[in-house]
Design a protein that fits this description.
The chain has 473 residues and is an alpha+beta fold. It has 2 domains: 3-48 and 257-472, MetI-like (MetI-like fold); 65-242, Jelly Rolls. The protein is built from 16 helices and 14 strands. The strands form 4 sheets. Strands 2-3-12-6-7 form a 5-stranded antiparallel beta sheet. A hairpin with a 2-residue loop joins strand 10 and strand 11 (210-215).
Length: 473
Amino acid sequence: MPAREWRVFWSSPTSKAGVLLLASMTIVSLYVLITYPQDFGLRIWNNPGYWADYPKEAPPSWVNLFTADKLPEHMVILTDSPAYTYSDGQYYKVYRLDFQYEYSDTPSFLSITLGPAIFYGRPPYLEITVERPDGLTVPLYFATAGTVLPEETPPYRRFDPSQRIFLSGEEQVARSLQLFLRMNNVDLSYNDVARLGPERIIFLELSGEGLGERVLKGRYIVNVVFIGDTHDDNLSWAKFVVGGKVYGLSGTDRIGRDLAAGLLFGFPVALLIGLVTSVLTTSIGSSLGIMSGYIGGRVDEIIQRVSDILNNIPLLPLLIFFTFIFKPSIWLIVMILVVFGWSGLTIVVRSIVLQVKSEQYVEAAVSLGAPRWRIMSRHVFPRIAPFILAQMILSTPSAILAEASLSFLGLGDPSLPSWGQMLDYSFRSGGVNIGLWWWIIPPGVLIVVTGLTFILLSLGLEPVVSPRLRRMR
């Protein structure tokens, strides 16, 4: 864009707002492309096992700013540095995971994950207990590290790559908690203990009358004791997860996915679909429109009839049909949008070229013997280039909305999470019915803001495209 046209473009507040929004989206997209793995969609986003230790349907952490009683934050405590002791011919390695709990509500769940274990003799013994701030010790879990098969030879390996114990759903944990309560004069049935769960029994106050309603605040210590026969018996690490009831900047969905990660990943997906589709459709449409308008004759007739046919075919049903028949892919969506999206621009460009070709500088080039391709590229195209650029920018939101519509219908590319897919899963999972606003509003807002970005840029280009509007301003 020449300097004069650039000054006209930049003088508009809408142009500045559009450029600022587009620059922000580009920066976020580059950050995602640099920091996220290439297989984020399949290996992480669509893998429920990856999100097992995340809270489910948790609102964003900043909602605590607007509530008197603070909901518990999500906490992950990890250690690989045990304390060593030796007693009665056995080696004790104690992994201490301590944390401060100062919230007014109990956690949503509790889990512990054990890293790879190695031993040379009998299977080691595991003990997991919790020390409460009131001095009581809660037994949770007791087990051995599996059995040794006859065909195995030392060193023996277990929990490879790791062993996750979901304490909130473990039968042995419920039995241990029932025994703990009886020792403290609280008699509850196994079903009642299982219904309450370890997160309430561990974190609520105990009194002579039974289990209280107030949360016991203070310092908690989780002890993972690894008991082996030799000094070389070892547990790599231990991780304790205190499931929060709020999480991160954007909360989580039904399977615990961090919505902020999905929202960020949606930026490069939206820009990829929008920009690639608009550049290709604009390039094809403008090239064929220039050829049709300048060359005329049979070339014009063929291009215009094909354009008329494609321009009257409804695009969304075609997108639904092809993505349903073939494997959903972002490149399939882009290809369909390009194949059926260039015809409208071709018709408009042709009408402009018919006016441009009769101007004196074009006729002068013809009289000097300039070839057709040179006249079209050096004389006709520069005249209509601002209009083509404006159309390219204006057509970008259409491609983004088309992909969002397909994803909302469940026909998006599963390997690339997008804002439309997030909306689709929220509706299918009942997020709207139960009021999970943090799951629904942000993807919709980002789709609107992305479309608004390119509309602002297109409005800023109007004075450049139309000198009459420039004079009116």
